[in-house]
Amino acid sequence: MFDYNYLQQLISDGIEESPGLEYKAAGALAREDKKVMEITKDVSAFANSNGGILIYGLAEDQMHRHLPGKIDPVNRHVISKEWLEQIINSRIRPRIHGLKIHVVTIPGSDDDVVYILEIPKGETAHQADDRRYYRRHNFSVESLYDHEVRDIMGRQKNPDILIEFKLEWHKGINPDGYENRKPNYYLMHVYAKNVGKVYAKYINVLLTLPQRCTNIHSDDRYNKSLVEITADNKVRDLIMPNAQNYLRTLTIAKPPEYGPARYEPLLPGMHILLKSIPIHEYSTDVGNEISWITYADNSESKFGSLEFHNMKRV
Asked: Per the database record, which ranges form the Schlafen AlbA-2 domain (predicted)?
């Protein structure tokens, strides 16, 4: 993935810098104290935010800020991968686990390289070499307030829930067995995956999708075009499937019996099906989008959105 073609593609496509992507010219890497300090600030800021890609050896366009201009390679004999790795591991506290440095050699010269840093989201707050904490905000690096540092440190104390979707195709079938008498549809399965370090006890997701995509009617008197659906990790244990009471000489059929609702804790690394929602066949056309807000225990709420046509099929 991270090779010379990747760099050329960034330039040709004009991929702008973002909170998860930054370009640095070769001059940003130097052995002087000021430059070393900047390296620790930039790398720790990514880890304290949501992680991302930091590229040393790709200069910004001179006329258009935040756009990639040209490859400005680093001399690997002056600044080696080992030196950069040693600076990051020894000057940022605590150490950022999972950080990767990819070396891209520029064609025509074995000495010229570009360093692509793949920085994960930190599990706690990481301190730069000046004993301060930083984060990324738009295109800049800013110092953190005390409460922000505490929130980041709480990542290890609170679950981190990722919402995933899968579409299952269903053909409309009439009772007489003929297909396509009823409209075809998808069953949208909503899953929660715990990518954090502690288990989640309470999970609640508020889904918002166009009303035209489902037969569920909107409860919003002011906006009938959108419908809100909740999904959570409540379960009810099945006590007796197709329960039957045998009374000496009489058998009375009863519907299945369930116990009281309870929350099913979600362990780290595990996933659970929260809800399955029928949606219309044409919902997968480009432009139909679902958005959601996720709540889990004391974690900060998380927002997300996705178009139906980008969902995984099963």
From this structure: 17-138
